[in-house]
UniProtKB/TrEMBL annotation:
It comes from Dimargaris cristalligena. This is Uncharacterized protein. Pfam families: TPR_12 (PF13424). InterPro entries: TPR-like_helical_dom_sf. SUPFAM superfamilies: TPR-like.
Length: 108
């Protein structure tokens, strides 16, 4: 390693950027949809590791809600029901604190 190279790990902020979190979440969802549940679990766990340090206690991230929900579905498909339930519970608890409102309107 040259003396001019920089250690990006030590200079990186705690938690990942939203782009990085969304990328890991999307990768996990794609793996899940293709039936690769173990690989999906690893990708979603990485997304959760990146989003949780940035989360404010009184303002949880909608990304964390989505990631927990997807992890619940992954664990459910793996027949790991206690883990699935824990992630579904986390998603619901966080959802109650999310200030963003998503409105879906059906066509007339």
């Amino acid at each position: 390693m040259s003396s001019t190279s920089k250690n990006t790990e030590s200079s990186a902020p705690e938690g990942g950027s939203n782009t990085e979190v969304v990328a890991w979440e999307g990768l996990g969802e794609a793996y899940f949809r293709d039936g690769w549940c173990n690989t999906a679990q690893r990708a979603l766990q990485r997304a959760l590791e990146l989003v949780e340090p940035k989360a404010e206690p009184n303002s949880p991230s909608p990304l964390a809600v989505s990631i927990h929900w997807l992890l619940g579905r992954v664990f459910q498909n793996l027949s790991e029901f206690p883990e699935a339930l824990a992630h579904f519970d986390s998603a619901l608890r966080l959802w109650a604190g999310v200030s963003e409102v998503w409105v879906f309107q059906s066509s007339p």
